[in-house]
DNA sequence: AACGCGATCAACCGCAGAGCG
DNA sequence: GCGCTCTGCGGTTGATCGCGT
């Protein structure tokens, strides 16, 4: 048996929102705040399901949204974050003020994917398409990055499934400090992130020493001193892209 | 002007996980 | 610990727009 529907579908509108619906939703949220999406439509006098209201607010009506074209910097950041996080659009959006996950997802699928493909880069693995069969796993160390920040102890254990935690730390570095202003101390956590090309037989993970960079363009695994560029001098066509955690740290 | 086609983006759907009793 | 509800996320769909023929 399936779960019960989130709302009474027979009595809800679907499709594009009207100006009046937008106004009602905006006015209600301004008066009562976000939250309790299930009961919101009824309270606001809307014939919509709660999910639909939430989506409309988050993706379109929120006052802090930055609409319009993506800048080159935003492009670059999205590509970098996607190479680290994959399709974690909400985490990526967390690093792009005023942008929504839906917007970034659409932008990725319509613009960036094609852009990377035209450069001969696989948008899924972020590696040259020709390199696919020679690919090897890459682990990116965030230990140095964590130490570079104030939250020196935010290091995750490698042997637990921490990809999401690491991703969250990247997307919302301040949010890793749970507990009313007390910095989170997790001395046994390791921020190592492992990125591996899909559809490959399992190979031993190549562990990078912290403080050593990895070039995603030429896949140099020989160890590149931190702070210096790889000889190939490009990352997805963008210079300065030694994948150093600091380079994706924002503001 | 009419049509076809690809691009774009708002909105929907189903699932997973968190929270709560 | 279990079951239920609610929220949030990612994938997908479909309406609309713009351009070329």
Automatic annotation (TrEMBL):
Domain of life of the organism encoding this protein: Eukaryota
Protein name, UniProt field: Uncharacterized protein
Organism: Avena sativa (Oat)
């Amino acid at each position: 048996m399936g779960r019960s529907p989130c709302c009474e579908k027979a009595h809800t509108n679907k499709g594009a929102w009207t100006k009046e619906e937008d106004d009602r939703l905006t006015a209600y949220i301004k008066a009562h705040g976000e939250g309790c999406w299930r009961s919101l439509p009824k309270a606001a006098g809307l014939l919509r399901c709660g999910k639909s209201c939430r989506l409309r607010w988050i993706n379109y009506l929120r006052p802090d949204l930055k609409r319009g074209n993506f800048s080159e910097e935003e492009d670059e950041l999205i590509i970098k974050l996607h190479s680290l996080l994959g399709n974690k659009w909400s985490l990526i959006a967390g690093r792009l003020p005023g942008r929504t996950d839906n917007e970034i997802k659409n932008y990725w699928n319509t613009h960036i994917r094609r852009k990377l493909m035209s450069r001969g880069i696989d948008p899924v693995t972020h590696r040259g398409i020709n390199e696919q069969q020679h690919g090897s796993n890459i682990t990116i160390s965030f230990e140095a990055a964590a130490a570079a920040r104030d939250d020196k102890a935010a290091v995750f254990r490698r042997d637990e499934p921490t990809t999401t935690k690491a991703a969250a730390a990247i997307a919302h570095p301040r949010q890793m400090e749970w507990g009313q202003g007390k910095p989170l101390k997790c001395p046994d956590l390791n921020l190592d992130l492992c990125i591996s090309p899909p559809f490959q037989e399992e190979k031993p993970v190549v562990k990078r020493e912290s403080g050593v960079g990895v070039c995603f363009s030429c896949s140099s695994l020989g160890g590149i001193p931190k702070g210096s560029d790889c000889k190939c001098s490009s990352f997805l066509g963008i210079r300065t892209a030694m994948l150093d955690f600091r380079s994706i740290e924002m503001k």
